[in-house]
């Protein structure tokens, strides 16, 4: 059995500390209803965070996932509103578009040698530009029925949005933990030269994880259509920092080879508890972003510096 190190436990202690603080500070925080609210609030981030986890584990980064999520929703709504395509074909087209853009990111990074930071930064502009072009800067209100169900529908007290997020995380965990491809992802991030010598096609692995990131961005965009009941040209663009921040907060390394889906789940819960808790204690709206940033920075220092970047 693998022994947990302080690096593994630091995010968990951060989550426990935040939960205890907000439970004491607010009488309404520690309740089943509020926990359900937190899950609803982090569901879209969880879908995007799954793809981001794959990318970071290979020591790459995807700065386009949020704008690709926006584009995925826009494409699905655009084809629903302008063309008599049978459902759920508009959704499938949207996912194919984001997968293709993810593959272009992977091709540029793995086969042309362009740093993923630069390729995905350019792709974020491309995706954002396409969203603006398709919407002409306006909001599209006609969306696929399946997207409405996935974004706003429920099974009992649980939203389909949360179920989609849970299934996405579960599939990501199974792939990383129990498949050869998952082992190759870790090998590529930990030591690409050694992985190449061992016969791993690291270029292919990087290209595929970028495509996975594009796919999860597309899924997030589609379910967000139902959650917002509309497609907006910049709807999810602001989620980039939250997505990467949640994955890193959970313990997945920016330098590759360390982390995974369980760590991402902890990071998502830290971010969700923090945002929800600040609402519960009525922090001044003009200070909320500042306070969130300070607490997240403190959590990162605790998780990385005091726990140690690498432990023997």
Considering the chains and any ligands shown, give keywords for the structure:
73% helix, 2 strands, 13 helices, 312 residues, mainly alpha, 1% strand, globular, two-stranded antiparallel ribbon
Structure in words:
The protein is mostly helical and 312 residues long. The chain has a domain at 43-260. It is built from 13 helices and two strands. The protein has helices spanning 6-25, 32-57, 65-82, 89-110, 116-135, 145-152, 160-178, 180-190, 192-197, 202-228, 240-250, 261-280, 288-306; strands spanning 154-155, 158-159. Strands 1-2 form a two-stranded antiparallel sheet. Helix 3 (65-82) packs antiparallel against helix 4 (89-110). The longest helix has 27 residues, at 202-228. It is globular. It starts with 5 loop residues before the first helix and ends in a 6-residue tail after the last helix. The mean pLDDT is 90.
Q: Which regions contain 5 or more consecutive residues with pLDDT less than 50?
A: none
Class from helix and strand fractions: mainly alpha
Portion in strands: under 5%
* Distance between the ends: 17 Å
> How many H/I helical runs?
13
Reported for the largest beta sheet, the result is:
2 strands, antiparallel
**Can you count the beta strands?**
2
Task: Tell me the strand order in the biggest sheet.
Answer: 1-2
Helix content: over 70%
Bulk shape: globular
H/E topology pattern: HHHHHHEEHHHHHHH
**How confident overall, as mean pLDDT?**
90
- What is Rg? 19 Å
Short description:
The chain is mostly helical and 312 residues long. The protein has 13 helices and 2 strands, in the order H-H-H-H-H-H-E-E-H-H-H-H-H-H-H. It has a domain of 218 residues.
